[in-house]
Design goal:
This protein is α+β, with helices and mostly antiparallel strands. It has 1 helix and 5 strands. It has one domain. The chain binds zinc ion (ZN).
Length: 70
Amino acid sequence: MGRMKDLYIQKLNESLSSNLDNIENVTSPTDILCPNCLKDNLVQYSSVDLACVKCGYDFIKVDENTVRIK
Ligand SMILES: [Zn+2]
């Protein structure tokens, strides 16, 4: 799990540094609470991909307020 989180943070940092022009399109916070750890809201990094910064899980958006684990 730690490795997944590291990879996510690395990917996030790469996205942030290489896409400063459209940073809002890279990641955006959502109101969806992480269904895995219930500790933080998910961040959205594409039209259907979301992730939890706390536990590192990746999710796919299946509905406006519904996600499932990838
Ligand atoms: Zn989580």
